[in-house]
Amino acid sequence: MKVGYLGPKGSFTHAATLSFFKKNNLIALPTIISALKKIETKSVDYVVVPIENSIEGTVNQTLDFVYHHSKAKVQGEIILPINQNLMVHPNSSAHLEKIKAIKSHPQALAQTQQFLDERFNLATQEVTASTTEAAKWLHDHPNELVAAVASLEAAKMYGLDIIYPNIQDVENNQTRFWIIGHENITKKETSIFNKRRSIGVSFTENKPGNLHKVLSVFSWREIDLTKIESRPLRTQLGEYFFLIDIQNESPSLVEMAILELEQLGGVIKELGTYPVYLEKAF
After folding, report:
1. Burial of residue 269 (number of CB atoms within 10 Å: 0-12, 13-18, 19+)
2. For 3-81+174-278, which CATH class?
3. Which of 128, 141, 146 is CA-nearest to residue 86?
4. Where are the domains of the chain?
5. Alpha carbon distance, N-terminus to C-terminus of the chain
6. Which residues 6+ apart lie within 8 Å of 159 measured at CB?
7. 116-139 pLDDT, tens per residue?
């Protein structure tokens, strides 16, 4: 089995992929779009990509591609606690007061802004393509007074010293990762944390009350919506589709709600019905 993931090795997406697929043939891919295109061409069996972080919100690249372009479905979801760490090259450990720059991925920098402002407010923040790339840069530049925000695994990979662990601004920092593929998949040795169904809803006419229609068909049936979000429909300004994540504990009730929504003019795209797995911190 070939499994693509948003790389590189040592990233949080890599950790989520390892937690589910273990020792399968894992293939690091450079961007979310390149990963999702691999599953569309069936070059891999599954891909793992981030969909939402509890601090920074939805990963729009993932959602927009899956809604507009993907024929594959969400087959599972991994929820991974995210612990960010500030690290330096061992050569710099004795000179923390002189750190002049902090490197990391934009999401990691955003998740640690309060900490960085309190401890390193004079250091510039420099964006890298991934947290692992920031760690690699430190390894390759041992005499630079620069720190990185990255994972414990990245620190181990590149022989870096973690000077401040768990620096995320919100203690319960989690990221949702979607497993996307053309075939169903289950992880038998781990209990399922939840069951979810994700749909995209648009309307042929942009009328007042469309959002109310969406909410009402689920509300009176007492169906729990774990997420609802609007995104541009890419037709013209002011037209949107709605992402809806549904607690799928009563599938027959959910099915009736979706049928009613279609009768009210909703156009439904099924993104997937899937189990949710909660993994341990990485």
Report:
1. middle
2. alpha beta
3. 146
4. 3-81+174-278, 85-164
5. 24
6. 90, 139
7. 999 999 999 999 988 999 999 999
